[in-house]
Amino acid sequence: MSNRVLYICKEEGIHLDAEGLSTLSTISQGDLRRAITYLQSAARLFGSSISSKDLISVSGIVPAEVVEALLKACKSGNFDLANKEVNNFIAEGYPVSQMLTQLFEAIVEEKDISDEQKARISKKLGEADKCLVDGADEYLQLLAVVSNTIQALCNMPEGFA
């Protein structure tokens, strides 16, 4: 895919740094049509010189540092800190469904979270995703996921609050 993307960039007069190419490959999941759409959108918004940050901005992907901050707040066991991260996330306008997807990926890859904890968290992520599809409030669903994640990571019984 990278050779085709580089050819398209050259033909269209778009400058894409090496980091942007790697990001484009990741966010488009190897789909050339999706990659072209992201490139076109970024070029319209940011001009012919496109950075990795520009591509992330047009893709709807939540920046990794935002996901990490939310997970770190959950690991702290401090609900007030986690609530603050949820409020910041909502204020930035990122899609909660995308956060749920990325949070799931981050949790699955965590080495210091047990399989039982991962299962509890994943179950709640799935329930929240279903609720979002049904039209539930994004803030409340993300807050419920965060609360459940804190409970799972602190080995509290389910429903403890």
TrEMBL record:
GO cellular component term, pick one: nucleus
Q: Where in the cell is it found?
A: Nucleus
Instruction: Show the GO MF annotations.
Output: ATP binding; DNA binding; DNA clamp loader activity
- Keyword Nucleus belongs to the record: yes
Checking InterPro entries in the record gives: DNA_pol3_clamp-load_cplx_C, DNA_Rep/Repair_Clamp_Loader, Rep_factorC_C, RFC_lid
What the entry lists under PANTHER family is as follows:
REPLICATION FACTOR C / DNA POLYMERASE III GAMMA-TAU SUBUNIT, REPLICATION FACTOR C SUBUNIT 4
Q: What is this protein called?
A: Replication factor C C-terminal domain-containing protein
